[in-house]
Amino acid sequence: MDVRISHLDNGLTIVTDRMPHLETAALGVWVRVGSRNETESQHGLTHLLEHMAFKGTRRRSARDIAEEIEAVGGELNASTSVENTAYYVRVLAQDVPLAVDLLSDILGNSVIDPQELKREQHVILQEIGGVQDSPEDWAFDLMQKTAWPGQPLGRTILGTPTTVRAFTPESIREYLDTHYRAGSMVLSAAGKVDHDEIVKLAKERFGDFPTGPGVPFLPAQYHGGENRRVRDLMEAQLLLGFEGKPYKHPDYYTIQILAAVLGGGMSSRLFQEVRETRGLCYAVSSFHWPFTDTGLFGIYAASGEDDLEELMPVLLGELARAGDAIKEDEVARARAQIRASLMMAMESPVMRAGQIARQMMVYGYCLEPSEIVERIDAVTADDVRRVAAETFGGKIPTVSAVGPVSKLMGVDAIGEHLVGTTKAQSRAAKAGSFIDLGAGRHC
After folding, report:
1. Residue 419 confidence (pLDDT)
2. Rounded distance, CA 210 to CA 247, Å?
3. How far apart are the first and last CA of the chain?
């Protein structure tokens, strides 16, 4: 790994990872602003702004932007998440100057044309409607809303039809001026790149961006609860969630491994018990979403109406046993899965550029892959059992479901079902150990 970091006088961070065996480069700007930075009236504005960045600048029309990047065989795209927004390009190494110029232009010179805004608002309204047509997407949105009710973290990224229609060029420019400041931006590049050249280009194109950080988001408070939508569908979409861990928590890697052990693949506990042994559903998996100050551990299952009454007790039984029964060979397999995923991502310049950008935003430095592997390998079965007991034992769950879900066990009954895990929690906690995520070399 050949990572270098620089900072411009206005606060912009530049991080590169040189991969000289490649002939391509991936680079982008990650901005520390996401949907949870929005007020209630701004709901969906971060995502709309991402769309509008490609709709014309003072130097280029929307067509010019598309034609210039495609004329060199490049790709230009963007994405909005809960805590950041990314604008990224992949080009041949010789076209890196064009990529930097395009990124600076769409972020610094967008004109927010009223007619383009109307068209893009219409496109996003179609996106919002599409979620209602996808029961799985709808269930995930309901879960987030229920875990953090009345909070920015609990709101969807897309916004609502009412808020999206209300946005004006003026409100978008105000939001852009408030949050898109150099201190909140990371220019990240990976592949066949030269750090000094990227810094030089950044000074020319980003040096006049406004200084200072953007406005931080409010801390989140997990609540949990139940949110179901009964619909006449063939399949029920079910999500069961619990409060997870933030990025910097000492048990971050432990809970990631727990997610892999429970539902990370075909050999996982949930897949083997629920799908293979009992045939209660077509799909079942577990996941962990980390954020800056909180997290969400979730179980996803898609099942028929007739199997729901049996499915939930089986899921809860596996969670209850996790505090006592997880074995070292299961943890070893999960560690191997996570290590392999890490190393595979290292071979992709697109994945690598995003990885080092997010590490800079979360930690303020980049973790060496060897350090990450050490932290993964340091997690023991005792650690995983302890975190399982702490996560599931006596805690308020979040339940969201869409489809024929009227017979589904309610959240109160689920909580009572899991109370017994508190005994396992007290036993496992005595054997627990922690991983210090604060340690690490600056790249």
Report:
1. 67
2. 28
3. 9
Tokens of 38: 């929005």
Q: By three-state DSSP, how is residue 400 classified?
A: strand
Q: Give SS3 for 291.
A: coil
Is 136 marked active-site?
A: no
Q: Which residues of 286-311 are buried (b: 16+ CB within 10 A; e: fewer)?
A: bbbbbbbbbbbbbbbbbbbbebbeeb
- Is residue 236 within 8 Å of residue 403, measured between CB atoms? yes
How far, in Å, CA of 8 to CA of 80, rounded? 25
Assigned token pair, 331: 């943890």
List all residues 6 or more positions away from 162 whose beta carbon is below 8 Å from its beta carbon.
none
Q: Number of helices (H) and strands (E) in the chain: give both, helices first.
A: 17, 11
Measured CA to CA, the distance from residue 220 to residue 387 in angstroms comes to 21
- Bridge partners for 298 per DSSP: 241, 287
pTM of model > 0.85: yes
- DSSP string for residues in 212-264: S--PPPPPP----EEEEEE---SSEEEEEEEE---TTSTTHHHHHHHHHHHHS
Q: Considering the candidates 38, 50, 243, 390, report the single residue annotated as catalytic.
A: 50
Close Cβ partners of 145 (under 8 Å, ≥ 6 residues apart): 154, 155, 156, 227, 400
DSSP 104: H
Rounded CA-CA distance 362/354 in Å is 12
The DSSP bridge partners found for residue 75 are: 90
Mean pLDDT by 10 residues, the chain (443 residues): 94 97 97 96 96 94 96 97 97 98 96 95 95 93 96 96 97 94 97 98 96 89 95 94 96 97 94 94 95 97 92 93 92 94 91 96 92 94 96 89 90 75 43 32 31
